[in-house]
Each structure stands twice: as structure tokens, then as C-alpha cells.
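User: Second chain of the day. Same drill as before.
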Amino acid sequence: MYHYELAGLPSIYLKNGYSIDSSPYGETVAIDDLEGLHGMIAISIIEGEKKLSQAEFKFLRSFLDMSQSVLADFLGVSDQMINRYETGKTAVTGSVDHMIRVLVQEKARGAGKVFDLIEKINELDRGIEQAEHDFCFSNDNQRWARTLNCVHG
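Assistant: Same format as last time:
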């Protein structure tokens, strides 16, 4: 059994799904489907009934691929408050606990509309510039939809 500590959580053990090899620099560990493992860890955390610990909160933020700043903006708290949650200086409040569980569930079980919005916010936070473009729409006689390849004519 392998004690998996790279997630920052003290009590994660793997029965299989990993290999340990030797290199000139020491032991190396390869984890099969690391993203899948992190998804299962995240689901296990949010399905628990206890309040999130500082390490769990930090892991979940990382799993969401959100900076402290983006998560703070989304939750309506300061960057410093996110830092205080992650360092254990302040206990995670009930509303923040609930909201991060919703976000994780949405990401882990298939990104929905809320997570799509968060991904767009993350892109902006990472400084990805979006080119100015026109918005084009079409109506299929039932509803309007945004279309790609907007060509003026």
C-alpha cells in the first residue's frame, strides 16, 4: 500500500494503481490516471458529513483549478479569507463549505453550466486575452442560439 501525500492530505492510501521505480536520483512513483484519482478524492471529501479541514479546502480549490483570487471573487469573500481557510487561521464557514462542495460535484461528475462559467473566469484570471469578435445568432424556429463563424454578408 502506498501513502499518497502529494495531494496535501494526510490520510490517502492507494492499494494499487501505481508503480514504484528506482532511478539514479532515488525512488519514483507513477500514479495511473492521476486526474481520476484526484476526482475520486474530491468526491470522497465532499460526500463526507464533517466540515472541511484546511487541507481539504485547499485540495478542493486546487482540484477546481481556481486561484485564491478567483475563488474569493466567486464566493464573495476576500483573497485573505481564502488564505485564512487554507492555513487554518479561520474555520471554513457553512455557506463557503456548501458552495465549494457544489462546485466540486459539478466538476467531478461532469461540468455543467456553473463550472463552464468558472472555466471562463479562470481563463480571464490567467490573462488569456480574448480577441474582439462579433456575436452571431440564428433561430431554428424554436429558439435562438449563438453560432460560430460569424460571416457578414
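The first strand starts at residue 2 and ends at 3.

User: Great, on to the next one.
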